[in-house]
Amino acid sequence: MAPERESGRERHPAGATAATRPRTSRLDQPGPRRRRLLPEYDPEAFGRLSERIARFLGTGRFIVWMTVVIIAWLTWNVTAPSHLRFDPYPFIFLTLMLSLQASYAAPLILLAQNRQDDRDRVNLEQDRKQNERSIADTEYLTREIAALRMGLGEVATRDWIRSELQDLVKELEELRVDGHREGVFPADHPARRDMDDR
Questions:
Q1: Mean pLDDT computed over 162-170
Q2: Of 69, 64, 63, which Cα lies nearest the Cα of 93?
Q3: Is 190 in contact with 184 (CB distance < 8 Å)?
Q4: With bands split at pLDDT 50, 70 and 90, how would you rate the model's confidence at 1?
C-alpha cells in the first residue's frame, strides 16, 4: 500500500548527487550589494581619527588655543558695539559650545583609550608567550649544561693530566736519585731500562 501512495507524489533524490532546486545566485560569484539604511564606515579609520583627536586634546597646544579662543570670545562680546555682539553677557552660546566640545571629546578619548587597552593586551600576550619561550629555552640550556658538567666530571682535563704527569716525573726523579745512590734498579723500572739502553 505504501508504494502505491508514493507513486502519486513526485520524488526528489537525496544526497550529494541529488538534483537541487535552481538557485537565484551562484555561490562562486559575489552577490549584489545590499542596501543599508545606516551609512557604512571603516571602524579602524574612525579609531585612528579618534586617537589623533585625543592626542591633540591632551597637549598643551590645545589648552593654549582653547584659552585664546575663549579670551577672544569674551573680549569681543564685552568690548564690541552692542549690535555686533553675538553672545551677550551670560555667554550662553559659549557655554553651549564648551559643553558640545566636552560631550564629543569624552567619548573620543574613551575610544582612544579602549584601542590602547586592546593594543596593550595584545602586547602583554605576546610578551607572556615570549617569556614562556625564554623560560623553556633557559631550562633546556640549564639541563644541557648540567649534562655537560656530569660528562666532564668523567673526562680527564688538561690540568689533571698535567698534575699526574708532574707527579710521575717527580716519582721518577726520586727513584733515579735513590737508584744512583744505591746503584740498583728493579728490572721492570724505567730508569733501569734507560740505563740498559745507554
A1: 90
A2: 69
A3: no
A4: very low
